[in-house]
Each structure stands twice: as structure tokens, then as C-alpha cells.
Amino acid sequence: MTVSRSDEKSLKAGPYVGADTGAHFIVPSSFVRSVKGMAKFVYALAIGLSVLMLGAQSAQPAPQQAVVHMTNYAFKPQTLTVQTGQTVVFQNDDDATHNVTADAFKSGDIAGGKSWKYTFDKAGGYSYVCTYHPGMSGTITVSDASPTSAP
Ligand SMILES: [Cu+2]
User: Fold this and answer.
1) Per residue in 12-47, pLDDT tens?
2) Which terminal residue of the chain has fewer beta carbons within 10 Å of its beta carbon, N or C?
3) Exposed, middle or buried, 103 (CB in 10 Å: 0-12/13-18/19+)?
């Protein structure tokens, strides 16, 4: 019968058709090229973004130096908040010699017109005094600097 023969043909033709479609999937090299091109584009984009992010990081202001003045036998400002890694300059504007003394740091003598600086690496509260002049005291609060790597 013709019907059964055509059935046989279609069964035999099956694998060839499959191979043909398989070949058609492989052939378009333009598609492969476009995928490679896309990969290059994504790569370039990633480099561009990282350069932008580096630029943004370097554009961030460097930790500023805070200044505490010793003026008229007092620390000004008396209370100050800085971030970890920040340096505080203690500037003696008086003629008298002062010092900055805390549990964590000791400046030693700071003659009139001179200054001394200290970098605060640990977060916390720091109460300090001038041991020469009772009542001459101040507090510095050091807060954790926000992580720069996080978005
Ligand atoms: Cu003093």
C-alpha cells in the first residue's frame, strides 16, 4: 500500500530531517559572532563601570583634619565627633603651655603657638584634659567610617 510506504519513508527520512535541522542550528556563525561581540561589549561595560566606580571613590573627599584649639585655657570645640582614621590637630593658641592627656594618648607639652596631632583609628569616646589647668577638658567621639566598598 502507498500509505504504509509513505509511512516507511517518513520514518526513514526522520533522522535526516533531524540532522538537517541540527546543521542549521550550527551554521549561522553571525549569531556566534554577535554573541562574542556581546561578550566584548559586556566586558567593556564592566571595565567602564569599574573605572567609573574608582573615579567616584577617588573623588570622595579625603578625611579632613579636624582642629581643636586651645584658647583662653579651654578646648574649642569642647566636644567633637570624627570618623575612624581621621586626624585631629590640637592647636595651642595661648601663650601658656598646655597638653592633651587621655587614657589612650598623651601629647606631652604643647608650647604656645605649637600644635600636636593624633589620628583616631578606634571608634569610641575619648575624654581628655590638660593636666596643667583644672577644668580644661574636652571629649572626642570617634565613629566608624562608613565602608567605601559597599555601594
Ligand atoms: Cu592647659
Assistant:
1) 444 444 445 444 455 455 655 666 666 666 556 565
2) C
3) exposed
- The amino acid occupying position 141 is T
Distance (Å) from CA 98 to ligand 1 centroid: 4
Report CA(88)–ligand 1 centroid distance (Å). Answer: 17
Plot region of 22 (φ>0 → left; ψ -120 to 50 → alpha; else → beta): alpha
Cα 117 to averaged position of ligand 1 atoms, centre (Å): 16
CA of 66 to the centre of ligand 1 (A): 19
DSSP-derived pairing of the beta strands 66-71 and 74-76: antiparallel
Task: Give the helix ranges, DSSP H, for the chain.
Answer: 2-26, 29-59
Going from the Cα of 121 to the center of ligand 1, the distance in angstroms, rounded, reads: 25
